[in-house]
Design a protein that fits this description.
With about 240 residues, the protein is α/β, with parallel strands linked by helices. Helices cover about 45% and strands about 15% of the residues. α6 crosses α7, α6 packs across α8 and α8 packs parallel to α9.
């Protein structure tokens, strides 16, 4: 069996030695293969050996939008299922993240939905989307790119509503970008994620975070060498329901 080797990738100019004295936010997209098994264990090792401290954020309730994409029900219908996905992920992967010696805290997505500044920050983002065409374009391009990957993977395409899916993706992104602006209270210098930060998140970081917090939340992605093609996002509770 070939060893899966994770490596950091980033666009900004910095010395990796900076990591040793910094705090990172490790974001977990529940349902993604990169946050399971050997890949997640390898990620834990890499983060453990690179940073001074870490907060882990489990993006569970955010996934209610993703869970609704190919269904008829709206995103809120899947709220409880998304929380269950977070519960299952935490239980399933405890054997890995308990080895993260620098772990300070584990946060779940509802922390941001219930944040006292959430609605105010969301309003600012929506207002800038309406005001600045180039900012709106960053959301449009992110959604178009995602749906170009998502649609071919659908087993049943005949009843798929592309406009509805597009709106669900927009809700997802606005929620994600709103939360990004609130992450500043965690005092994390870097966000660690196994994938490139999407354009909407990148533009939000540039416009809402860096002008006020110039040393916070820089994107550092993790790439895996010697790995096969990743599988699409999969939710365990949905699989169990289908098999029942």
């Amino acid at each position: 069996m070939s060893y899966i080797k994770p490596v950091f990738k980033y666009n900004h100019n910095l010395d990796k030695e900076t990591f040793k004295n910094s705090k990172c936010l490790l974001t977990i997209s529940v349902g993604q293969e990169v946050h399971e098994g050997d890949k997640f264990a390898a990620t834990i090792d890499l983060v453990n050996n690179s940073f001074n401290s870490c907060v882990m954020l489990v993006d569970d309730s955010l996934q209610r939008h993703s869970m609704a994409l190919d269904k008829k029900e709206n995103a809120d219908f899947f709220y409880e299922s998304s929380i269950l996905e977070g519960d299952l992920w935490l239980e399933r992967n405890k054997k890995h993240y308990q080895n993260l010696n620098i772990l300070q805290d584990i946060i779940r997505w509802d922390k941001w939905l219930r944040h006292p500044n959430y609605l105010e920050q969301q309003h600012k983002i929506k207002a800038l989307i309406a005001e600045k065409p180039d900012y709106q374009t960053s959301f449009d391009k992110t959604i178009d790119e995602f749906l170009r990957r998502f649609y071919p993977r659908l087993l049943e395409k005949s009843n798929f509503d592309m406009k509805r899916a597009w709106n669900l993706c927009l809700d997802y992104l606005i929620e994600e970008c709103t939360a990004l602006c609130l992450w500043t209270e965690l005092n994390c210098n870097f966000e660690i994620y196994p994938g490139k930060r999407n354009l909407a998140m990148h533009e939000t970081h540039q416009r809402f975070v860096l002008p006020f917090y110039p040393e916070m939340l820089y994107a550092v992605s993790i790439k895996f060498k010697n790995r096969k093609q990743l599988k699409p996002q999969q939710f365990q509770s949905s699989v169990a329901a289908e098999e029942a």
